[in-house]
Amino acid sequence: MDRFNAMRVFTRIVELRGFAKAADSLQLPRASVTVLIKQLEAHLGVQLLQRTTRQVSPTLDGAAYYQRCVQLLSDLEETEAVFSTQRQNPRGTLSVDMPSGIGRLIVIPALPTFTARYPQIELEISLNDRTVDLIREGVDCVLRGGQALDESLVARPLAMMDQLTLASRAYLERFGVPETLDDLANHRMVEYVSRTSGKRFGLEFQVGSELREINLEKVIAVSSSDGYFAACEAGYGLIQAPYYHATRQLAQGSLVEVLPHLAPPAMALTALYPPHRQLSQRVRVFIDWLVEVCTHPDSPLQRQT
């Protein structure tokens, strides 16, 4: 039995909660995965996994063994990288999750420079606005806008994204152009609802050192960034969003900036990854590249003055 391979299979089963998903993820025959786990449990003399009709979960011994395996496999990967060409030419699959707007408008258009620099890294990128479970879903790192709330993950700040307040021309023709915060009493907003927490977001304005939070009348709430913009363009009210996400609409004239002298606070963009992935050369070079992209003088994350 190849014990390191068995540990790799075991950790993936724990993370994905199933033999079949682990086998598919590792591109191994499902029968081989079952045999490896039986051999591993026989070798250790303990039951590692509790199997039910719905899912697979680690036993108490299995949970303790999982933590040791994660650290050992991470150390092994880094040790091999030190004494191999992978340190200069990392290879393998890198799984990344990010909001659809950031992926579509910022990261993917710049990716050719990364793949040219690291041609042996195969990227698997998922675009969505929900919060993923990195361990369970086998994701190496995620990009998130806003405050990073999961303290169990390693956070690498990438940039502060400028934001602005927007409305459609048709909406402004109907409700007027607000000039002050007091004028907002006669206006509406599109409400954004987090799919993960259920939190509802209103409008925020930075007035000197004070952050003013304002909730207006609304007739529609959405839970995706694309829906948020679509509702604004349809005339349902004001929204606040990162500047990069609005450049096309501003250029086309479908949306107009309002209250430019009272900008919303900048939004943090952060890369997050599990602690056991911080030694991974693939993760390291990808995040270093992201820092380059986000801090470039021509980055669309900040407004050009």
UniProtKB/TrEMBL annotation:
InterPro entries: LysR-type_TF_proteobact-type (IPR058163), LysR_HTH_N (IPR000847), LysR_subst-bd (IPR005119), WH-like_DNA-bd_sf (IPR036388), WH_DNA-bd_sf (IPR036390)
Keyword terms of this UniProt record: DNA-binding, Transcription, Transcription regulation
GO biological process: DNA-templated transcription
Keyword Transcription attached: yes
Gene3D superfamilies attached to this UniProt entry: 3.40.190.290, Winged helix-like DNA-binding domain superfamily/Winged helix DNA-binding domain
MF-aspect GO terms: DNA-binding transcription factor activity; sequence-specific DNA binding
Keyword Cytoplasm: no
Stretches assigned to the HTH lysR-type domain: 1-59
Pfam family for this entry, one: LysR_substrate
Family: Belongs to the LysR transcriptional regulatory family.
Protein name: Transcriptional regulator
